């Protein structure tokens, strides 16, 4: 069983930056793929970024690549999402999720691939 708690959301102006954190508790964090997802009002949840258990492999949705960086500190059981040059369309509730996919198996950014979810943190981008 894994528990995920997000923090770091808030209000930021366009062009600004935020760093989200996902604190994970449970016995299998080190091996888990962790993903960040966004849900904007009236839209489906979207996978934004993911990171493998070792941190060696990362994936991003095209429209954040080059602006967002996902990383993890396995000693602290935390996954980060650094978001730079934020745009109004980046706003939404950001949730982190953990996948039980076996190490070495393929994985992506689809919601159905993830087994445990946090409650989310709100990101608002507005002048």
Tag the structure with descriptive keywords.
mainly beta
Give average pLDDT, whole number: 94
Number of strands: 11
User: Biggest β-sheet, characterized?
Assistant: 7 strands, mixed
Structural class by sheet pairing and helices: mainly beta
Order of helices and strands: EEEEEEEEEEE
Helix content: under 10%
The poorly predicted ranges are: none
- Radius of gyration, in angstroms, nearest whole number: 14 Å
Principal-axis shape: globular
Roughly what fraction of the amino acids lie in strands? over 45%
How many separate helices?
Answer: 0
Rounded to the nearest angstrom, the distance between the terminal CA atoms is: 40 Å
Structure description:
The relative contact order is 0.32. With 127 residues, the chain is mainly β. 0% of the residues lie in helices and 46% in strands. It is built from no helices and eleven strands. The strands form two sheets. Strands 2, 4, 5, 6, 9, 10 and 11 form a seven-stranded mixed β-sheet that branches. It has a four-stranded antiparallel β-sheet with strand order 1-3-8-7, with no helix packed on it. It is globular, with a radius of gyration of 14 Å.
């Amino acid at each position: 069983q894994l528990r995920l708690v997000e923090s770091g959301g808030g209000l930021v102006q366009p062009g600004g930056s935020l760093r989200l954190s996902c604190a994970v508790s449970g016995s299998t964090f080190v091996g888990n793929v962790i993903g960040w997802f966004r849900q904007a009002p009236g839209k489906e949840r979207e996978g934004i970024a993911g990171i493998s258990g070792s941190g060696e492999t990362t994936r991003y949705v095209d429209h954040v690549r080059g602006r967002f960086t996902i990383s993890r500190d396995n000693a602290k059981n935390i996954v980060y999402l650094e978001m730079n040059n934020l745009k109004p369309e980046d706003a939404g509730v950001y949730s982190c999720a953990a996948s039980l996919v076996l190490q070495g198996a393929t994985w992506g950014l689809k919601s159905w691939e993830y087994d445990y979810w946090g409650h989310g943190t709100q990101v608002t981008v507005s002048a």
